[in-house]
Amino acid sequence: MVTKRILLALSVLLNVSLIVYLLVSDNGVGNYRALKADTYAFTQEQNRLDEKAYLLSHEIRLLQSDSDYVEKIIRARLGFVKHNEILYIFSDGKKKIPVGVRE
């Protein structure tokens, strides 16, 4: 009877110490949650980068095969115009003041 109580007390003590270890240690529940959050963040970043890579590869295919798209990009990004075209540039109405100059 006494040995059963001693074994029961030891098993309860062992269980309590294991629970405390799981809650407090570096390999415990807190670390698991942090790793799970990191995994989720990395997955989201990977999905974002996969989408960006897809869009860039699509743009590369267009630049290699579609001359109209190439012309559109050149005109939009570099401001090129065709022969006999006139480019009108309208200001946005905001007066730009150089840094360090007072009005």
Strand content: under 5%
Rough outline: rod-shaped
Q: Please state the CA-atom Rg, rounded to the nearest Å.
A: 33 Å
How do the SSEs run, as a string of H and E?
A: HHH
Secondary structural class: mainly alpha
Oligomer: single chain
Low-pLDDT regions: none
Termini gap: 96 Å
The level of helicity is 55-70%
**What's the overall average pLDDT, rounded?**
86
Major beta sheet summary: none
- The total count of helices amounts to 3
What count of structural domains?
Answer: 1
How many E-type strands?
0
Structure report:
With 103 residues, the chain is mainly α. The chain has helices at 2-24, 29-65, 67-78. The N and C termini lie far apart (96 Å). 0% of the residues are buried. This is Septum formation initiator. It holds the Pfam family DivIC. One of its GO terms (biological process) is FtsZ-dependent cytokinesis.
In short:
It is built from three helices and no strands. With 103 residues, it is mainly α.
State the main characteristics.
103 residues, mainly alpha, 3 helices
Fold topology:
Elements lengths: L1 H23 L4 H37 L1 H12 L25
